[in-house]
Amino acid sequence: MPFQIQEAIEVLERTPQTLETFLAGLSDGWLACREGEGTWNVSEVIGHLIEGEKSNWVPRLEFILREGESKPFPAFDRHSHLKEEPEKPIGQKLHEFKTIRARNIAKLQELVGDARQLERTGMHPAFGTVKVRELLSAWVVHDLTHIAQIVRVMAERYRTDVGPWSQYLGILKKAPSE
Amino acid sequence: MPFQIQEAIEVLERTPQTLETFLAGLSDGWLACREGEGTWNVSEVIGHLIEGEKSNWVPRLEFILREGESKPFPAFDRHSHLKEEPEKPIGQKLHEFKTIRARNIAKLQELVGDARQLERTGMHPAFGTVKVRELLSAWVVHDLTHIAQIVRVMAERYRTDVGPWSQYLGILKKAPSE
Q1: Burial (0-12, 13-18, 19+ Cβ within 10 Å), A50
Q2: pLDDT value at position A171?
Q3: pLDDT at res. A178
Q4: 1.10.3720.10, 1.20.120.450, 3.50.50.60, 1.10.287.1080: which CATH number matches A5-172?
Q5: Which residues of B touch A7 (CB under 8 A)?
Q6: How far is B15 from chain A (nearest CA, A)?
Q7: What is the DSSP string of A71-84?
Q8: What's the complex ipTM?
């Protein structure tokens, strides 16, 4: 089935509220745990999602629609959210994510009113030619990737607590750093 | 840090509402897609979570507290939810999961009022001796495993749509059947 923007929006608009429902009010034990040194905790993942809203998805969409393939869009620093000091509380981050995502979905609907625009092309700095619909699908799968990361990081906390059940729990089957 | 029942409950009580926020009202395209033949779609995963509430976690806890290691608890059929016909709508399943989970958390709090009970042991039919706290941690990680499965199944739908972004999207890096 061909890519349909309305189905992509169904996921994009649910992610922030889903994460708020799951994460708001959790103990620090859940929010601060990591899969190992140099990996992100849950709160840092939310910071990365906010950064993507600010500098990645919609800015790149606007860039493609404005410039086409004439020049590559600026690279996105996937670690820039870690530079922010001091760390904001998770509740504030979740709220910020919800607000900026809602604004970006409104912008998306305004910018891509017509299915033909899904075929417009731009120049990714590493990939070369990319289509608007590839960018939008990647935005959705990026949400799904980071929801998966959040639950994987949390599961890590109970790796030894589950005892022999670890062999039935797929999420624990990979090495912590994977 | 030693296992604390209150932290386990924080996750257990959030899972149903989180899934309802994420899944209720999604198009059939998202709810019906699979990772391949013989794998579960999103709706079947919710069926499995309901089945776990009915026949696995709390029933086993009660069994351990009643029988100790004197006899193994009955095996849990991980595919029993697939036998149910006809398939219920996802909204109804999500509601059912929420209701039965709330009841089970109340039962859990009633049964394990004292941290010493976390060390009580029972006999798993395959693993041998298991502790109450291992069962309860496994219940939490089981939720996390199936949230991860749900987003992985959904991501699969856009595997080709994302074009070159697939190399940056960790969730797509494994083979569909893994």
Answers
A1: buried
A2: 83
A3: 39
A4: 1.20.120.450
A5: 27, 29-30
A6: 7
A7: SBPPP--TTGGGG-
A8: 0.94
